[in-house]
Amino acid sequence: MSKFKEFCGSFVDFFLYSCFDNGFTSGIYASCKRFIATWKSRFTDKDEFYNYVSAEGQKAFIVVVWICINIGLFIEACYRWYMVANRAVELNKRLGTPGWDSYIPWWVMIARGFGQLLNFNCALILLPTMRTLLNVLRSFKIGHILPLDKNIIFHRYLAYTIVVCTVGHTLAHYFNYSCCPMFYRNVYNQPETSTLVACWGNKYGLTGNLLVFVMVIMFSAATEAYRRSKNFTIFWYTHHLFIIFFGLLLIHGRNFWMWFFGPGAMYIVERILRNVRGSTVTIVKRVHALSARVIHLELEKPAFRYKSGQYCFLNCPIISRHEWHPFTISSAPEEEYLTFHIRCVGDWTNALMDLLNPAKRSTLVIDKNTTPDGKDHLLKVDGPFGTAAEYVFQFDTVMLVAAGIGVTPYASLLKHIKYRMQHDPNGLKIKKVYFYWINREEGSWEWFTELLNQIETDCPDQFEIHTYMTGDIKAQDVKAIMFGSSEASGVASPSDIVVTARCLYDYEPASSDELQLSEGDIIDVMDRDLSGWWTGVNKTTKAKGLFPNNYVVLLDKVTKLREGKNRHFGRPLWHEEFENVRKHVLNNTDPSKEKSKSRPKVGVFICGPSALSKQLYGFSVKESKAPSQVNFKFHKENF
Q1: Do residues 607 and 577 lie in contact, with contact meaning Cβ atoms separated by under 8 Å?
Q2: Dihedral-angle region of residue 292 (phi above 0 means left; psi in -120 to 50 means alpha; beta otherwise)
């Protein structure tokens, strides 16, 4: 009963949102102004146009082809129905039919033109949602031509087009019904036809109005503002009204079945494959509760093979049998388990945390695939599916930018690249990785501290890791950062400040007053003498003693990573970072290739909020402008 009340409350909230704050009109003036200004600069500035084509050429080509097809279909339908209308008028004039003493209004042609566009776009809108089809296309050369990573964006373009065409189609027909209802009496086999009957008294008018009603519900819940700030569950269920939508559309449109047959059949196969993949047994090994409300899942490695940077859809039947949510795989293919790092920010993810680890234990061993009563699966997995991260391996130099939990695809990539550099360096094109991780909360760094420490220790020349703390820092932490730096060696630390260090190598003590150290041990440093011997407590063994300072590195108080120049506080200065990368690329470019026409390329990959993505995209385009000798290729994670 409580869940039913909660759902009803959410639905009432959604109803009020769709009626009074649906997101279609809020900020539309500002959005249009920005859109016009952007495209004006692209067509008036030669360099701006060149850079746009260079950065978004694939997407632009597909969109231009799609627009041309829409224009052609609209003109063809208008012309065809213009000829039909003329013949009908002439015939009825000869027969002396009452009311046919003038030409059918232009609204008929306009309605039919928009109707043909609806046939085309409503059939096409299913294709970008077919994850299996996109995966298959990635394995062929055409996958490198089509902008497959823009599938969600193209899906939205199609949805916006359907909205515009629906408004045009509906208004044109309403004008027809209001001024010339007599034209429809033969169509409806009625001796007299009024405007009301023409609108509602037949299957075409009735299904058309119902389609508009269904679309208002679907589109209102699909706006980004509602999905992210309201209730994702409502979005999920209302979006599945597409079944009713297509059912009504098959009744409403006489010829729609011909457009729908191919995509519809492919989508049915897609859903069958999803159910087959999702029905396999998945054993949950361990669940870890991390800081900042992040849950770390370890699953037994499934039968499918995956690549680093890919993602899967997870379903928990106990929470909701029909909801599937996408999460990036955070483990590398070489690891023993399949892992996910999930931030609990919504209703479904919070329910998952409460179900699998209600006590918020640091580690909880489950090692089961079903609930204790054996009636339900704990988790189902559907995947894996490709993302833009797969293109990382096409570049010699890459910039990986993550914000918060957006680090997960790059955690997998960093592990895999590190493994390849150590075991198969000749088979790997990547030579240098710049990794930038931006966080607001201090506890977020612990998610992948061990991984980043290993990378900085084992591959210091191949990886350059930058961390940015953008949240507030306590005064105590500022003091710890100051006294914990290498510049403060030999300076007595206040009693309330604990300086920490991490052991780089194993050390066997030569006397009883020395500490035994193992690689990875964390040490609380009590005294740093300039002689090279420090005093501290090994947090693993709890022993106190002396140890050589060249066996350890000091750790940053906030990130728990190696203290150094790449630990930043505040937002990145992207111009400086791009300039540093450019200098590295030019200094390491093979002289024999310098005379070639093609500029060296750097891959810029981002997984984070849209504001950061737009900022990085702007810098990628700007820093690639002539006379720049380096081309920065921008890629964004979309799923």
Answers
A1: no
A2: left
pLDDT of res. 43 = 67
Among 588, 586, 596, 592, residue whose Cα is nearest residue 629: 586
Using one digit for the tens of pLDDT, what is the confidence trace for 155-193?
A: 999 999 999 999 999 888 888 777 665 555 544 455 555
Report the alpha-carbon distance of residue 317 to residue 355 in Å, rounded: 11
Contact 404/438 with Cβ under 8 angstroms? yes
Q: What is the pTM of this model?
A: 0.78
**Nearest one of 358, 350, 361, 342 to 404, comparing CA atoms:** 342
CA distance 421 to 429: 10
Looking at residues 86-99, what average pLDDT do you find? Answer: 67
> Residue 578 and residue 589: Cα distance in Å, rounded?
16
Dist CA 122 CA 435 (whole Å): 41
Domains of the chain (ranges plus CATH)?
2-274 (no CATH), 284-385 (2.40.30.10), 388-473+565-636 (3.40.50.80), 475-554 (2.30.30.40)
> Could you give the CA distance from residue 259 to residue 525 in angstroms, rounded to a whole number?
72
The side-by-side arrangement of strands in the sheet containing 544-548 is: 544-548, 533-538, 522-528, 499-503, 552-554
pLDDT tens sequence across 374-419: 666 788 899 898 888 888 988 999 999 999 888 888 999 999 999 8
477's tokens:
């932490």
Query: Strand 552-554 vs strand 544-548: parallel, antiparallel, or unpaired?
Result: unpaired
